Amino acid sequence: MADFTAFLADHPGYREIFRNYDDAALHRGDVEKLLSHALYLDFAKIYRFANAEQKRDLDLLFFRYEVTILKSCIRLVYSEEEDYDLNVFDPFFIKHLKINVPALSASSSMEEYIRNLKGTPYYPFFEKLQASGNPLSSFDYEMHLDQYYFRKAWKLKEKLLTGENYQAFTSRLGTEIDLLNIMWIYRSKSIYNLEAADILSYILPITYKLTKEQLTRMATTNSMDEFMDIMKNTAYKEMYPALLNHTMESKYRQLVRKVYQLNKRKYPSSMATANDYLYQKELEIGRLITALECIRYRLSPQNRLSYILQ
């Protein structure tokens, strides 16, 4: 662990975020939080040098980061972890956040959490969820929040973006939505055994390269074989073997990464290069956090590598 943090503290990509901390005193949870905020630090640096049009594109990414922080605070409500440490945030983030992170992370119940969202764009959404009367777990809240993000971002792009930025963002988000819907339908049928009506109530009513007919047919099939037959005849047939061998999460990341890289070549005048950099950074941080987990459970170097490179 000490060697791991010492390496990061000396790495140019993470040196700035670790410089105010004693490597030897950092615990695993501390390092994970610092790694996550290294992404936000890089985002802030890019945002400062962006023009008005570029900032509109980055604002949609900031919306996603804010939702990620909301989800982290929800997990704190359901756990015994400490409050969010705002000291690791870049001042830019504190200034632009629409939410009160200290209050949210210190909430002792979801009722208190929702009260702490009053006056923000998220309050009506959470108030409606609470008013439904259905018992909701941390997973339920996070899933609904993801749906909220994708629906709203899909609408906001029409208002905020134009030209190549619009095209790049649409291809990126549209691919994510299509793939997440496929994976949710697959899980609903193979793991949760949900009825078609329940599946349709959970999936995002947005399609990109999938057609609405394909989406509905996949959700309402009577068997997994029928679902797979429909899916392998869509634009996402590459997911077929990944569903069979249970590597769909890895394949999802691979296909989304391909879109980011394609956008760089296809839309050179857009923010695609900056977005690709931030996505690659996010993936890198995910691998570093996985490496931390491997060290925690004392896996052999060979086993560590297989997990990290998934």
What can you tell me about this protein's structure?
The chain is mainly alpha-helical and 310 residues long. The protein has a domain at 50-161. It has helices at residues 2-9, 15-18, 28-48, 52-77, 91-96, 101-105, 110-115, 123-131, 138-160, 163-190, 196-202, 212-220, 224-231, 239-244, 248-266, 272-296, 301-308. The two termini are 22 Å apart. The mean pLDDT is 91.
Q: Strands, helices and their partners?
A:
Elements: H1 2-9, H2 15-18, H3 28-48, H4 52-77, H5 91-96, H6 101-105, H7 110-115, H8 123-131, H9 138-160, H10 163-190, H11 196-202, H12 212-220, H13 224-231, H14 239-244, H15 248-266, H16 272-296, H17 301-308
Helix pairs in contact: 3-16, 4-9, 9-10, 10-15, 12-13, 15-16, 16-17
Helical fraction equals: over 70%
Structural class by sheet pairing and helices: mainly alpha
Order of helices and strands: HHHHHHHHHHHHHHHHH
**Describe the biggest sheet?**
none
The shape, in one word, is globular
Mean pLDDT: 91
For the termini, the CA-CA separation is 22 Å
Q: What is the count of β-strands? A: 0
Rg, nearest Å:
20 Å
Q: Tally the helices: what do you get?
A: 17
Beta-strand content bin? under 5%
Unreliable runs = none
Brief description of this entry?
This protein is mostly helical.
Main traits of this protein?
310 residues; mainly alpha; 17 helices; 0% strand; globular
